[in-house]
């Protein structure tokens, strides 16, 4: 029996989600009106942040199995912001407090300043329907 190799390792998934968020952060403030697509973009950020958080836990668990406790702990601490910002975005979306969105986008931008957007690689289909899907899902609570 041959080995099963997962080509979607946590780093690839995390980088894909980061790139998606970076492109949304570039496009969203440049929209002339706050329409359904802008709401979808905001909801897609929530899903991408959750995806990043899941990969962080997977990576840390792998390091902990190898007894790299300090490395795993530092890594989790470095990415701890994803849960909090995802919860804040979700609150804004569910409460329809769209006036708070620009401030939250500004808080998010420093985490993605290392990504340069020279060309767009994500199609609008990457975030289409995310708002409706998020509202249909049960709300997640921030667990300390």
Whole-number average pLDDT? Answer: 89
Task: Please state the CA-atom Rg, rounded to the nearest Å.
Answer: 16 Å
Task: Please give the domain count.
Answer: 1
Give the tally of β-strands.
0
Number of helices: 6
The string of secondary-structure elements, in order, is HHHHHH
Runs in which pLDDT lies below 50 for 5 or more consecutive residues are none
Structural class: mainly alpha
Strand content: under 5%
N- to C-terminal distance: 42 Å
* Helical coverage, percent range: 55-70%
Question: Could you give a short account of the major beta sheet?
Answer: none
Overall morphology: globular
Quick gist of this model?
This protein has six helices and no strands.
Description:
The protein has one domain (10-136). The chain is built from six helices and no strands. It starts with 9 loop residues before the first helix and ends in an 8-residue tail after the last helix. With 144 residues, the chain is an all-alpha fold. The mean pLDDT is 89. The longest helix has 30 residues, at 36-65. The chain has helices at 10-27, 36-65, 69-78, 81-95, 101-108, 130-136.
